Amino acid sequence: MATATAALHLLLPTRRRGRLLVPRACQADSSATTSRRGLIADTATAAVVAAAAPLLLPRLPAARAEDLSEWERVGLPIDPGVVLLDIAFVPDDPSHGFLLGTRQTILETKDGGRTWFPRSIPSAEDEDFNYRFNSVSFSGKEGWIVGKPAILLHTKDAGDSWERIPLSAQLPGDMVYIQATGEQSAEMVTDEGAIYVTSNRGYNWKAAVQETVSATLNRTVSSGISGASYYTGTFNTVNRSPDGSYVAVSSRGNFFLTWEPGQLYWQPHNRAVARRIQNMGWRADGGLWLLVRGGGLFLSKGTGIVEDFEEASVQSRGFGILDVGYRSKDEAWAAGGSGVLLKTTNGGKTWVRDRAADNIPGNLYSVKFIGDNQGFVLGNDGVLLRYVG
């Protein structure tokens, strides 16, 4: 800025020793001695300088990825290719949390997520496997981590130490989600729809559903669900509500499924939109949100499990929206491909893009709000955004 100011200063008349300095060609005492050729040269020089003046004006710096209105980029001590998958904090100590990802990534923070450091868990370090840690959850000081290939970790001291819980080789599918539900208790879900619960620190598990989703759909060929017959796929996404209900999207995105506590089977539902479903989850008011491939966002009419949705107004620029996280009943954030970050303040009816996030070099996969003032956006290439309000 100082250089640009100095350049502008050279173009303006200046005073020296109380006299106004003007171009030599304009001085009266030298007009008799100035030749015609010199006058033309001085005039041409002045014209060139005047024309160049606008080029010397300072330019505003371009917005950086870190210049986010309500989010800040957090640096992480990991390889650029790591995809971040889940984050959780100890309820008794909101400043203490864990961040999971691919390539055996486990990071720990003790300052609310401002800084992170690698966490080594000897029982999870196997030379023959490169674990993908999918989900982490805490209840009190008790916590759980699940990953792929099949691995289950448990802590009873807020993560100071972790033990590995053995699992059956007959477990259907890969573990994609776990929820701590109380003392020594948890609920675990696989990508084939198996739901298991434990009440003794994971040493015994009881099935909450009688069969996998594939078995349910292939048994009920006449269910009327488009694309469900002879289904052999897995879940693309699965999300749990605070009351324990689940909504999951089929791997092909052509229908979705729900399960409520006490039901013996998953319940399939036809999609209410033309495009295939990308992801689904729960609003803060108990309703559902639904994302379709290509950037569309829909909200269910009313609360609970329904099949009637209406489209919301979004500015996704055609990039897919991958996840939605509610901070309150009115405020929520949506994230997606190529740094798409959207905000709503009316429960999801209309969304406005945070343009400063357009320069983030990566896809944003997950939005997590732990409380009103603690939230994070997880992405690929080690991208982590922290909510600063």
Automatic annotation (TrEMBL):
It comes from the Eukaryota. The keyword Chloroplast applies. Residues 66-388 form the Photosynthesis system II assembly factor Ycf48/Hcf136-like domain. Gene3D superfamilies: YVTN repeat-like/Quinoprotein amine dehydrogenase. GO terms for biological process: photosynthesis. It is found in: Plastid, Chloroplast. Transmembrane segments: none annotated. It holds the Pfam family PSII_BNR. GO terms for cellular component: chloroplast; photosystem II. Keywords: Chloroplast, Photosynthesis, Photosystem II, Plastid. Belongs to the Ycf48 family. Essential for photosystem II (PSII) biogenesis. This is Photosystem II stability/assembly factor. It comes from Triticum aestivum (Wheat).
